[in-house]
């Protein structure tokens, strides 16, 4: 195929096209187009401003270089505007805090106090609070010690129990379980001195050591010290004994696979620290030993038991109008707790200074590390702030407890007590502590020992008709389980929803009747949760059913009598 040739094949040229007209047809006069004027119509009259604008646009279109100066023109105009504005008055942007993030309980109390005091719509809740029927019958303790003898011991286990009273209690019970499972002899646990609790008490100062050993004698061998002939191998120095650094929440199988071979080899081992070194879930044989240690073998020493029972009797005397029934409250509003929570209350500048100093003394830089951000509002919304005495009183009055309800307050030294305790005493004048029930002479044996004082509080709270927990921790953790063990499976405990409380107490427009309705529902919820079975990863020290208790065949709605 021949290629296409653009040139003509003949000698003649192709004629050129006609030349273009001088002006575009669309600009010719007489052409009519939509939006244009016709030659028969006069053009519209433009105003002066329209003519100036048209002139300005025409200049820009013809001289496009002017666009290069547009940014300069804009900046000049902005500078002229800014120079004409006065900055003496700066606009304020108001930030509205999230609901529940601010401590406004004092304002709410002031608003509702008169209506609260005049409310006589219900009888005292202390006589009607526990209504939930048991499902499937009641529960009773069924932990019994073994009757047979023990095989030859595989060696001695020495543990150091650290922390406060109830953290040490965890270590003791877990040590009993581990020693029994490994067929070892347990040395009476040593209490590690801590800079926060500052209590040098030994095991026998807090617990009845002889009773402890005798209760466990058919299940676990317990001795006061390791025989001298074994300690000679280590220069009679416990620090020379092999020490296991065991991870928290280790399984009992780990002890069998790792600890037992070393125990058989060395005959003496040390585990320090030992708090929370055994997982909550374990075989029934291990759980039975925990139950036996906690609910049967651990009894307070005679001085503590005598003082505690004496205060229980005095509280019942103050509660004669209620049949000897009283309410106990575990209030955590000590300075160290307020500081650790990082929450903000109504103490202003002085409170901020006190909390900064307390954090530095107790935790030395933990809260001032680079990158650490503390959000008090978010902490309050999440229900992590300790309830103040005022909030506890407002909550209980809303739950139906009257002004005459006898109250026992278990706590350490309340922060700024003169101010913070005043509203609670106004709402509940029949309020007592161990310091008001006992003389200084009676408390002199315990006064400088935090664990012994806590043990007295534990005893009085254990025997109350209602126990109120406000902040969590090991103290209510153990009391919940111990009360369930004593009262047929029911904890008889008010455990408030602190997230909901944060919203309620930050509601300036809420009325007394509406607040009371919410709090009565919260009280009913605590009643319905009184009897709960242990689930995986739950603590047996809070949920003794079904590992430590057996269900009876009773299905009626009668309540168990209070233990004495």
UniProtKB/TrEMBL annotation:
GO BP annotations, alphabetical order: fucose metabolic process
Sorted UniProt keywords: Carbohydrate metabolism, Fucose metabolism, Glycosyltransferase, Transferase
Domain of life: Eukaryota
CDD domains per UniProt: O-FucT_plant (cd11299)
Residues in the signal sequence: none
GO molecular-function term, one example from the UniProt record: glycosyltransferase activity
Family affiliation: Belongs to the glycosyltransferase GT106 family.
PANTHER family per UniProt: O-FUCOSYLTRANSFERASE FAMILY PROTEIN, PROTEIN ESMERALDA 1
Identification of the protein by name: O-fucosyltransferase family protein
């Amino acid at each position: 195929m021949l290629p296409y040739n653009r040139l003509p094949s003949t000698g003649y040229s192709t004629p050129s096209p006609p030349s273009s007209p001088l002006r575009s047809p669309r600009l010719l006069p007489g052409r009519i187009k939509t939006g244009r004027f016709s030659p028969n119509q006069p053009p519209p009259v433009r105003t002066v401003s329209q003519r100036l604008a048209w002139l300005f646009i025409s200049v820009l279109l013809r001289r496009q270089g002017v666009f290069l100066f547009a940014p300069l023109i804009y900046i000049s105009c902005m500078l002229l505007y800014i120079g004409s504005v006065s900055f003496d008055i700066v606009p304020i942007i108001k930030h509205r805090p999230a609901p529940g993030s601010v401590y406004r309980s004092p304002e709410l109390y002031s608003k509702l106090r008169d209506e609260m005091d005049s409310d006589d719509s219900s009888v005292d809740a202390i006589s009607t609070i526990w209504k939930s029927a048991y499902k499937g019958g009641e529960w009773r303790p069924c932990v019994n010690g073994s009757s047979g003898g023990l095989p030859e011991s595989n060696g001695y286990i020495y543990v150091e129990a650290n922390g406060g009273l109830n953290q040490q209690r965890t270590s003791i019970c877990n040590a009993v379980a581990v020693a029994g499972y490994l067929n070892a002899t347990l040395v009476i646990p040593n209490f590690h001195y801590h800079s926060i609790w500052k209590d040098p008490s030994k095991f026998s100062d807090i617990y009845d050591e002889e009773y402890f050993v005798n209760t466990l004698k058919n299940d676990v061998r317990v001795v006061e010290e390791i025989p001298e002939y074994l300690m000679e191998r280590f220069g009679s120095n416990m620090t020379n004994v092999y020490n296991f650094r065991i991870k928290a929440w280790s399984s009992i199988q780990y002890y069998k696979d790792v600890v037992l071979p070393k125990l058989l080899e060395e005959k003496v081992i040390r585990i320090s620290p030992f708090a929370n070194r055994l997982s909550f879930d374990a075989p029934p044989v291990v759980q039975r030993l925990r139950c036996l240690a906690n609910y049967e073998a651990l009894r307070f020493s005679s001085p503590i038991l005598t003082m505690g029972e004496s205060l229980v009797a005095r509280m019942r005397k103050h509660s004669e109008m209620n049949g000897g029934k009283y309410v106990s409250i575990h209030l955590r509003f000590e300075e160290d707790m307020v500081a650790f929570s990082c929450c903000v209350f109504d103490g202003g500048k002085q409170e901020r200074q006190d909390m900064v100093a307390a954090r530095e003394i107790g935790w030395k830089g933990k809260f001032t590390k680079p990158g650490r951000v503390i959000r008090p509002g978010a902490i309050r919304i999440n229900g992590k702030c300790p309830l103040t005495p005022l909030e506890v009183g407002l909550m209980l009055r809303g739950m139906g407890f009257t002004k005459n309800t006898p109250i026992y307050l278990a706590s350490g030294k309340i922060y700024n007590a003169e101010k913070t305790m005043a509203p609670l005493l106004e709402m509940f004048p029949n309020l007592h502590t161990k310091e008001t029930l006992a003389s200084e002479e009676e408390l002199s044996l315990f006064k400088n020992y935090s664990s012994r004082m806590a043990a007295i509080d534990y005893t009085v709270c254990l025997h109350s008709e209602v126990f109120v927990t406000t902040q969590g921790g090991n103290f209510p953790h153990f009391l919940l389980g111990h009360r369930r063990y004593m009262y047929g499976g029911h904890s008889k405990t008010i455990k408030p929803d602190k997230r909901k409380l944060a919203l309620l107490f930050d509601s300036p427009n809420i009325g007394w009747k509406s607040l009371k309705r919410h709090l009565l529902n919260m009280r009913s919820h605590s009643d319905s949760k009184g009897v709960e079975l242990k689930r995986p990863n739950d603590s047996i020290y809070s949920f003794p059913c079904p590992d430590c208790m057996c269900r009876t065949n009773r299905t009626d709605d009668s309540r168990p009598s209070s233990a004495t």
